[in-house]
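Morning!

As promised:
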Amino acid sequence: MHEHKERLRALELIQAPDLREGIRSWEPSGPRVEPRRGRVGVILLALAIAGASIVFAVRAFRGTEHPPRPATTIQNGKIAFAALSGGYWQIFSVEPSGSEPSQLTTLATDQLHPAWSPDGNRIAFSAQNAEGRMEVDVMDADGSDVVQLTEGASGWSYLPAWSPDASRIVFVSNQDGNDEIYVMEADGSNQVRLTHQPGEDLSPAWSPDGTRIAFQSNRGGNNEIIVMNPDGTGVTNLTDASASGEFDPAWSPDGTKIAFASDRDGNPEIYVMNADGSDVTRLTDDPGHDWNPAWAPDGSRIAFESDRDGAIALYTMGIDGTNPVRLIDTEADACCPAWQPMLVSEAAPTPTLSPRVTATIPVGSFPRDIAVGAGAIWVSVNDFTEGEPETHSLVRIDPVTNEIVATIPVGTASNLAVGSDAVWTIDSFDKPQDTVVRIDPATNEVVGTIPVGPYAFDVAVDASSVWVTRDIEGSGQSGEVIRIDPATNEVVARIPVEGRIRDVVVGEGGVWVVDSTSTLTRGSSLIHIDPEANELVATIPGLAGLNVTTGGGLVWMHGWLSTIDPSVGTGSGDRPLVLRVDPATDQFVGDPIPMSFFRPFAVWEGCVWFVGEESAVSHLNTTTLEVDHSVDVAPVAQDSTVHAALDTSTGTIWVANYQNTVTRVDLK
Amino acid sequence: MDPLTRSALLRPWKGEGRDAVARMETDDELDRLYREHGERLWRAVFAFCGDREVASDAVAEAFAQCLRRGAAVRDPGRWIWRAAFRIAAGELKDQRRRQAVSVRGEDLYEIPEAALQILEGLSRLSPRQRAAMILHDHVGYSAKEAAAILGSSAATVRVHLSHGRRRLRTLLEVDDA
């Protein structure tokens, strides 16, 4: 990239005149200082809403032939936007609460200006093609099923916006020389040019009642907000500010107001006016540049972009400009928000899950691991009190009373598993011979110790086996997976594996072992062992973090984008993703889900349960791939180890955290 | 200006006293602003429009308007850049030379060959590509800052940058061959 800068350095050889004397005697001509170029950007989703009500009858989607649908409530869905990713603008969506954004496009060209269809199921957007021109494309809300709508031999087609009945799309094209407003059927057919002016007409937005199209134009010299009929007639200027530019019109969902950006006070701010241009009110007032307003479908808030805090970021605010909230905290520039209308049938069932913290149980000292089974919650507790000998014990909690009912001294109890009528833990730490300790839940007594060799780490149990991981000589170079028969407490197999061997889980017909060689150099991997053959069958690269879980026919892991797209490389363009592995093929399936922090511990009721950022317990819907809820259990640093276990019999999550407590989260 | 001198000057002498103070402060401000931005801005606008006269007019007009507005302009540096580019673009439009701007004959004689090559390459880009490359790759503004100057979005500026760079490289390589 520096090549361009090098080339242009030659311009510094040009002698510039000193104009100061001229300026002192210069008579400014005033009105000539006008914004030359409009701001491309906001696409308002136009909604068929009668009056100010948010309850309306959906008339028809994709053409007028369809039968009417039942009465529907419109709610605020996600906010789609474009952000720089891997050197290109890509389209993302994010919950208005600011969850982890989902990346919808992953092309090696720029994708911009998302615009939601009125039913919130499709997104029209500006897509750069291989020749570098922009075309209008449309895709499903999850980024699938991309269809190119425009195909020009020359010029750009971009900045799409839907008609409220979803039958047509208004957009900008410069195929005839300069930017003009065009309209086409929603399938891309029958393009009609609506404006014929020498200026640049940009950022069209269709009024919610379908009768008007607002846009910005500099046809009169500087940018103004103009409205016209959908056939191009009846052109009316809504603004007439000779010394400033007005940009990015956005209709309120009830059609009575238009938000827009204007630099009339010297830098761009968000304003709102009545739909006839009267009663202009400024909503933002800050030194940053505020652009691209987009109304929430329920009319309660306005999203916009601003560089007030540095990078161009997305914000939402009240419709009177109060309470601005930054949407996502990202270094990369983000632009052109569009708010998804979510049509909710009035008879929609209420969510069956409502995670909430119902108890916090002090366990005295540091809880190392937690497991659920045999009618109890088991916590390995390490006491590192200064000046006293280090003690380790296994604590048993009664889920009925939320009380500790037993404290069992067990060597150096660490990682835990419950199964085969026993509780299993590793007694390790700097011993010549680590042991797997077996506790009988009926008596809370240690009933077996099984030597496995030094540097044992984790334990997992299924119906017929106990699986233990061990790092040979603690070198981090190679290890083994040890199989114990719970009927005899005998080691029945040792399976050699390469790497820095750590966690183990059993499920979906496999034993899954974490090789955490290096999460920094992306050198970690997930090892698949076939329990039928006691053999390693696959090494899946690109693991991020230490945790995996199984369920729903899949293995859920946290990996790096470079794992599935080697062209990304392991540099700054690499991002962490939730990845799904098909245990039958050891291949990734489905779309990756961008997520910065993901420690899965269970799959239950169509959801993957995980510890997320800031130790929130969250769940990822395995069908919609949405993160639906999160419960803030213990706000500790991301890199702290917080373990959790799910009791599927009661729908309860138990979290061991660094506050020396166990937190109970009831899901129903 | 130190506070003592300032308060002395502000004494209500006679009718022209205030104007004299205002004039001095304006000159002061102009010197400061011009030292910081003048030559860089002129060069950038010249590279954009390829016309010495248009560049000088646009820069002078932008400075003059900025000074006249005084404290109403929050960020004079940014304001001047925006105004100058807009004025220059408006002039080009008036002269129907937006699409094919080229360095005018009388300007050629004092431009070094290396710079001339670049100017000619730039002249064959679209005005938006040209403006984006000058502000970002030559002056060193971020895409966001360039967008603010051009009244565009950083997204659009980046698109123009990538296209402009590709095109300029091709043009210069063809010329070299």
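Residues 17-49 of chain B form the longest helix (33 residues).

Hope this helps with the figure draft.
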